[in-house]
Structure formats: C-alpha cells, structure tokens
Amino acid sequence: MSPQPDASSTLWQGHKPGDGAVYAAECPLISGTGLAGGTAKWFQNPPPGFGGAVNVQALAQQAVSQMALVGPAVGIAPPPGSKGVVGLPVWLWDNVSPATWGPNTAAASAGGVTVTATGSATQIVWSMGDGSTVTCDNPGVAYQASFGAQVPACGHIYTATSDKEPGGKYAITATSTWVVDWTATTGQTGQITVTRQSTSAVEIGELRSVNN
User: Fold this and answer.
1) pTM for the complete prediction?
2) Is the Cβ–Cβ distance between 75 and 93 less than 8 Å?
3) Which of 27, 66, 144, 182, by CA, is between 20 and 30 Å from 209?
4) Is residue 59 located within the same domain as residue 40?
C-alpha cells in the first residue's frame, strides 16, 4: 500500500511501520465468484505474487551509493614536497578507511524490501606516469624510516628523472576495484563491481656524487 497505514492502524497487527509492510490485494471482481479487491494484510516480506514494483537491482545500486566509496587515500614515500631518486623504490599505500578499502556496509529500502550490501576493495592499480602500472592486491604498507632498504609491499622503481614531465613530476593515478555483494529480503542476491580513482604526483631526481 502507498502510502502505508498510520502506525495506530490495526492493519499492522501489532507491528510498527518499517517492520515489514502492509500490502493490498488488488483483485478485480470476478463475475459469479464475489471475489472483491482491496483486502489489506501485513507481511514481514513481500508476499508471493507481489507485483514487482520494487526494483531490487536499483535498490542494490542505491545501497552502493550510500557507502560513499572514494578513491585510495594515497600515501607515498618520498612524500609530497620531497624528491625521490632514480633506482630507489617509491612506496605506495592507501591510508585505509571503510570508504577507501572497506569493509563497508549499507542498506536501502523501498516498498517493504530491504537490500543490504557489503563491499571491500580487492586491488589498486597504480598508473605511475612513466608508462608503467603496478597492481597490488593489498592496500600497501605506510613507509617508516626504520624500514631502511626493505622492499615495499607495493611500490615502483623509476628509471628516469621526472625533469621533463609537466611540473617536473610524474603524475600518479590510483584506481581501486571494489566487489560488493548484496542480499535482499526477497531472497535475491547479487554482486556489483565498481571502481574509484584518486591522484597524486612524485618528483624523481638523480643521486649525484661529488669528487674532491
């Protein structure tokens, strides 16, 4: 029924609005049977034969939108404002949050149907600005000085300086892929894959030695 009955209505059968819904049987009067339409009854889930007014796929997409997913919160070493060196690794990572890596859960409801969706990022593809891409199936690890020459969980080594790049820096694009599984109170299930993107930049120079 739209709109739903007032909370004080006996049609709720002791339940409250939001707990299931009241559905109306819209049956035309069939000659000789005396079957009249307009009968209303509360159901926890949409009853068999419910007319499909609710687009469950659209509800799933709405739930994904409510997650407010964003591109990776890019962490990079050397950090912005400093310069990396040709031949030494650049560390890459996502500053993990539910919006940048997950897990993230949201729900959307309409017409007595609720879709609950849960998603997590599965990988980040880093486009490094020098024609190379780095695919990491983890968010990476934030660099710490104590790591020394340790190989990064996610990183890249440049073979040329960024002097000739716009602004003297390599432009970096990080694209995360999310897999979102959803379940509806109708029993339907599905999976949605989405991507989110963010950018950064790094300056790369050469290590020069001075001979006296």
Assistant:
1) 0.72
2) yes
3) 144
4) no
Q: Are residues 166 and 103 in the same domain?
A: yes
Name, of 31-35, 39-43, 55-59, 178-182, the range with top average pLDDT: 178-182
List phi, psi (to 5°) of 74: -65, 125
Domains in the chain, number: 2
Residue 31 near residue 156, CB atoms below 8 Å? no
For the record, the structure tokens of 46 come out as: 């949409």
Q: Which helix (H) or strand (E) holds 59?
A: helix 56-66
Reported as a single tens digit per residue, the pLDDT across 158-210 is 999 999 999 999 999 999 999 999 999 988 999 999 999 999 999 999 876 54
Which two three-digit tokens encode residue 133? 């891409």
Average of per-residue pLDDT values in the chain: 87
Within this chain, do residues 35 and 71 fall inside the same structural domain, yes or no?
no
Q: Does 210 reside within a domain? A: no
Tokens 């419910």 sit on residue: 50
| CA distances, 105 to each of 2, 113, 124 (Å) | 28, 17, 20
